Amino acid sequence: MLTSQKETISQFTDRRNAEKKLFTAGPASLVAENLYGLMPCFGRGDSQYDEVEERVLAHLRKLTGHGHLARLQGSGSTALEVMITNFSYGKVLVIDTGYYSDRAAKMAEVASACYGEITSVEKINWKLIDNVSGSYDWVIGCYTETSIGLKQDITKLKRMCSKIGAKLMLDATASVGLEDGHELADAISFSSCKGLFGLTGAGFIAFHERPNFCPSSFSLSLNNHLNKMMTGPYHAICSLDYVLEKHSDFRYAVEASKEKFIRDYEDRLVFDPADQPKLCTQVSGRVVSQDPKSILYTPRSLAEGFGVICHLGEVHLGREAVGAINDVLEVQFEISDKK
Known about the structure:
Order of helices and strands: HEHHEHEHEEEEHEEEHHHEEEEE
Number of domains: 2
CATH topology of the largest domain: Aspartate Aminotransferase, domain 2
Number of strands: 15
Oligomer: single chain
Radius of gyration: 20 Å
Helix content: 25-40%
């Protein structure tokens, strides 16, 4: 519903955020800075937009620790498929963590069937990576697997890759902006709307070295995205401009919500502290909310009797966040044994 034109952007975002409580995996709650950056723009001949895009991409290159970055219109899934199709070759090993790693494995299998650069795709459970042997060309993993609320040890993954002679590729959609160490991966993909706190609509691929292969597909060609051969995610990038300037404040809100939830439900946690991502937490029991305006996260694949709560619902509060959003939650049923 439209309101008085005298309503400020901050008042508008406050009102919108009051209409629901998000416990989902992204996008985060709506911050005023998302809207401050919006403007009419175009990808060619618009010097004002060019300045914004270069500023945002430079910030993301610094944030991820990679020298090269491609932006494209679409989801984190789109960016992941472009990355896998262009970079992967030879023997590929996928670290099995759940739904999102399964998605990466399927994309690798499709790329193998279509282009032949990938000769085999294997999977191994994340708990068994110490047992990996042999030789591989690429390892693909999810740094944060939101479907089960798990964070992998990126240093351990990198050591494993060195052991088997492989390069490391990460679906970093749920970790970038929140976790450290992304520079250890040779290539990562992510989106604009989770730990970066922007609006939906932009996918990114960050990498150290350009791939040698270019698929015949127009939309899946990394070169076409680097060369801006199609409409880009202009407004999603604009939404990040002011957000990234205050990123540490918004990240603080995620950490405050996570810390309070951990304290409140310490006896319900499934994973040890070292395996806890900032974005989300898995608990044993059924998660319910006393507030009908709550939007709970329903993972696409999770064992019955467990739940995952995400911690992006108070991002708009910045450093004023204390995790109070968690007070409407309750975890029901008996505690199950830890996995």
